[in-house]
Amino acid sequence: MKRSAVSGWLAVAALALCVAGSVVWLASRDRSAHGSGAIVYQPRKVMDVNGSDVVMKNLTPWPADASLEEIARHWDRVGYQKLEAIDQYLAQHQPTDRKRLDLLITAAAYYNYEGDPEKAYERLEQARQLVEEHPTLAREWLYTIIYFQGVTGLRIGENDNCVLCRGESACILPIALSAIHTKPRGSQLAIQHFREYLDHFPDDLEVRWLLNLAHMTLGTYPDQVDPHFRIDLSRYQQSELNIGKFLDVADQAGVNRLNQAGGAIMEDFDNDGLLDIVTTSMSPTASMAYFHNKGDGTFEDWTEKAGLTKQLGGLYCVQGDYNNDGHMDIFIPRGAWLSLPIRPSLLKNNGDGTFTDVTRQAGLLDPVNSITACWGDYDNDGFLDLFVACERQPNRLYHNRGDGTFEEVAVRAGVQGNGDTCKGATWIDYDNDGYPDLFCSGLKYGPRLYHNNHDGTFTDVTQSMGIDGPLFGFSCWAWDYDNDGWPDIFASCYSHSLEDVVRGLLGQPYHGPTCKLYHNLHGQRFVDVTKDAGLDKVYAAMGSNFADFDNDGYLDFYLGTGDPELGTLIPNRMFKNVGGKRFADITGTSGTGHLQKGHAVACGDLSRDGNIDIFIEMGGFTNGDRFHNLLFRNPGHKNHWLTVKLVGKKTNRAAIGARIKVVTAGPKPLRVYRYVSSGSSFGANPLQQTIGLAKSERVARLEIFWPTSGTTQVFENVAADQAIEVTEFANAYRRLNWKPIPRLK
Prior knowledge:
- This protein is α+β, with helices and mostly antiparallel strands.
- It contains 15 helices and 40 strands.
């Protein structure tokens, strides 16, 4: 026997044992077993339906200094490679029934991972036949397999309809008549298997939820849903407030890329006055994408032209003008959620539509595991520095030397972290002293707040400033949600179950932790106002960002939701700010409750009409959970607005960290405060600020505070409904003659 063949079989055997020990044979959920005849069946196990865990555990390691192309080769068709080994083993061996079951279930997970749910379903049918012939295996595994069949059936339906035949209302809850599946087989299978499961375990709310979704896709909800399992969505559909229905126009606009989870930036990268869109994908085999705004409502793919096709992978990306040349550059951290680090990329904008990878020259090549990074001038020397949040290494703080290179100073500055997995970070000048402080979300130990000491160091003030949670923190941001002139903090929480999310949608009690909204008490302390603001629910938030969606002067926000599991199909969420006091969930009436996995969110005025549109980078963790990106067009409102683009001279040219104050004209003036940033730690808004003015037709007073120079510019009697450019130290602003872009029909 050849040594290579023996090694291959041993590898498969080891793989099966690994799967059995680490993925499939996890403890059952806390549900009581139910009987059926002589067999007392066990409820479904928590298991890896999408194959991500088993792939991660069986990847061939790459060296720390590996190139992006080399890492891509490790990931290319990795699921199919493992499937070939399993097939070879099954063809040449007669394993025990339990071993065969392990391999069949593992093969189904691999097929789901690679995006072939039909083949996954075939393996599950074989697994089911096997256990039904053996009562001992059936007692433990039958209803886990039935659930697995239901979820895989749902994905077949999604692939056949929502992915291959995508429409503008596909996968948006509630499912519209125009989005009903024309190829019903997948959802029919899902309904069949979920009903089988619920006949034995009727109290499983998660399976009930998926059953209802499957019926919606066929147009048989609610009438044909068994009344015992029917879920009433009237509370979700009848939102308290209504700002109009947003329409997904990504397909018409040419930005509906099919991809896995990733990052998104909305920014004017070629200085033509039009916002472009840049995306990344966490798949190490997929390149980033650059969509250039053509000015007619559509975009052109400039990825190859811009020299970006070799920029592979990355769950996040963010813009910043690190060299103050007036052209927005891009930083891409990599390695999020992985066990091995990957090098990041700093892409210098050449000003001619192309980018150059200057990571090595800039001193940023150090490979880490990172999901986010943020630009900010922490020492006010006029050059943007870079904080990189790390998951498996100490955080990095790169000080910009001003000559195109950076020095790593996190330990010296005191922001290296406490050994936690840092999943979010944002600069926030919480005491308005002109120096940005730093907030970090932690997965295990909770958030940290670092105060800037003005000497290149920071002090941990988490406890003294009243910051307590959330644990399992994820994306976060700084904003002044109540317009009192002091920046507040929103920190999302990633601890969730599908059941708790559904309970929140239905207004039922839940058990999991929630996000946190911290109100700033004039720089002296923060107070947790999550419950008072109506945000004490479980959302499973991932990507996120904020903007004033209805131009009433108060910042609203949007959450991308989900997790790696194929069965986690929950709506992304939109929240309206109600006068700076609380937030109302308007997902149902806004038409933005997309059920696929929502990652990076970018909000900006793409059509130059003063209304904020929303771009979401969609798709899950695996190749088999990909989806098309979304572009929700704002329906428009009758409120007025002002777009302000800032250009720093002594302050960094991108004006990151500058403060804007607007006082509207009229008998009841509205005061609006904005801080220049890209917004959330999982998504990047444009740095130009579109400010809602409600019903006011003029701005009585516009103030700009520049942190490096410490100066404040004041302009009075500024007309609404226009875009202006303000340069530091200038005596007058410049009107930007931006014409609105006609809407796509």
